[in-house]
C-alpha cells in the first residue's frame, strides 16, 4: 500500500506490482482416480440434492485433473462444499467424500461467508464476497459483474462486446 492505495502484492520476497487488486477474502482432496460413476472423465461436477442427504443445502463436488494443469499426471483434485448446518460439518459432506475414498490427502476447511466492508474505490482494492458453496458459478458471475462496475464505474456492456466480435469476425 502507498498513500492508501494498492501498489502490489508481496509473496516469498517478490513483489508483483499492480494498480488494482481483485481478490477473495479467504485463502480439498487429492485422489488418484475420478469418482467411480463418471466414465473416467478428466473433470466432473456432481450435485447431491439436499433431500437425498436430509439437509437444507445441496452438496457440490467439483473434480479436476492434470488435463486442467492443476494436478500431477494421474491425480485428481476434488472440492466438496456445502453450507454448514450443524456442529459437525465434515459429517454433512460425508455423502460426497465416501465415493472418493481412498484419498491420498484431505484438507478440511470451514470458512465464514465474508463480504467486503467498502466498495474499494478509494484504496483500489476490490474484494469479492467469499465464494459460496455452489460449483456452477452463478453467484461468481454476479460477483464479477459487480466488481467490474465498482472498478470501472459503469456496468459491463455485453451488447457492445457482441458488436465488436461481429465487427472483427463477421459473426452473429
From TrEMBL:
Subcellular localization: Cytoplasm; Golgi apparatus
Any one GO BP annotation for this protein: small GTPase-mediated signal transduction
Gene3D superfamilies linked to this entry: Guanine Nucleotide Dissociation Inhibitor, domain 2
A single Gene Ontology CC term: Golgi apparatus
Domain of life, source organism: Eukaryota
Entry annotated with the keyword Cytoplasm: yes
Keyword Zinc: no
Swiss-Prot/TrEMBL keywords: Cytoplasm, Golgi apparatus, GTPase activation
Pfam families associated with the record: GDI
GO MF, one example: GTPase activator activity
Family the entry assigns: Belongs to the Rab GDI family.
Protein name: Rab GDP dissociation inhibitor
Species the sequence originates in: Eschrichtius robustus (California gray whale)
Amino acid at each position: 500500500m502507498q498513500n492508501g492505495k494498492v501498489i502490489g502484492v508481496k509473496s516469498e520476497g517478490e513483489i508483483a506490482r499492480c494498480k488494482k487488486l481483485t481478490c477473495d477474502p479467504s485463502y480439498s482432496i487429492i485422489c488418484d482416480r475420478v469418482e467411480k460413476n463418471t466414465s473416467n472423465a478428466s473433470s466432473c461436477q456432481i450435485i447431491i440434492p439436499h433431500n437425498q442427504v436430509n439437509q437444507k443445502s445441496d452438496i457440490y463436488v467439483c473434480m479436476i485433473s492434470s488435463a486442467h494443469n492443476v494436478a500431477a499426471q494421474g491425480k485428481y483434485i476434488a472440492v466438496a462444499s456445502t453450507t454448514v448446518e450443524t456442529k459437525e460439518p465434515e459429517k454433512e459432506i460425508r455423502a460426497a467424500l465416501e465415493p472418493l475414498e481412498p484419498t491420498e490427502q484431505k484438507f478440511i476447511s470451514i470458512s465464514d461467508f465474508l463480504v467486503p466492508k467498502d466498495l474499494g474505490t478509494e484504496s483500489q482494492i476490490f474484494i469479492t464476497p467469499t465464494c459460496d458453496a455452489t460449483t456452477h458459478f452463478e453467484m461468481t458471475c454476479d460477483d464479477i459483474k459487480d466488481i467490474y462496475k465498482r472498478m470501472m464505474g459503469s456496468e459491463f456492456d455485453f451488447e457492445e462486446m457482441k458488436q465488436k466480435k461481429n465487427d472483427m469476425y463477421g459473426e452473429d
